[in-house]
Amino acid sequence: MAMSEDGREDEYGGAEELTHTTDEGDVQMVDVGNKPDSERRAVAAGEIRLQPSTIEAIGESEIGKGDVLATARVGAIQAVKHTWETIPMCHQIPITNVDTEFDLRDDRIELEVGVETTGKTGCEMEALEGVTTGLNVVWDMVKAVEKDADGQYPETGIENVRVLEKEKQER
């Protein structure tokens, strides 16, 4: 592994090297063929701001479209499994596990998605896709009650999407 200027290890050859472009500037997929398989895990999180009345309706299963969190969980898992189809240079990786955890707060729902794989490349993009899609599904399920009189969403927003952790264990 190479070391970046700040002393961190960088498995793709250095922090300053763009691995998805050739020397000529053409876009390419990173060749991970010679890398050993390792057990990997990534956890991402994000939140959707909602009106307190919407949070209450979700908690009491009073949303007309159905079970918001169950539907969002399915959407998050599906997104994890299909990340390689939506992120152009992402490898198709074998997903071995997906965990989703929702936390209903007074004015928002927080979602954490953990993804596990055994392979040659990490799974943080899959975790991020799970979070963003899961939160988008929540929005879709509650948009009728979130809209104001003008059909806008002044109190609704998806925020703070980030990778919380990334782990790699050599086999």
UniProtKB/TrEMBL annotation:
Q: In which pathway does it act?
A: Cofactor biosynthesis; molybdopterin biosynthesis
Q: Which GO terms describe its molecular function?
A: cyclic pyranopterin monophosphate synthase activity
The Molybdopterin cofactor biosynthesis C (MoaC) domain sits at 29-168
Tell me which EC number(s) this protein carries: 4.6.1.17
Q: What is the lineage of its organism?
A: Archaea, Methanobacteriati, Methanobacteriota, Stenosarchaea group, Halobacteria
Q: Enzyme class, one word?
A: lyase
Q: Which reaction does it catalyse?
A: (8S)-3',8-cyclo-7,8-dihydroguanosine 5'-triphosphate = cyclic pyranopterin phosphate + diphosphate
Quote the InterPro entries the UniProt record gives.
Answer: Mo_CF_biosynth-C_arc, MoaC, MoaC_sf, Mopterin_CF_biosynth-C_dom
Query: What is this protein identified as?
Result: Probable cyclic pyranopterin monophosphate synthase
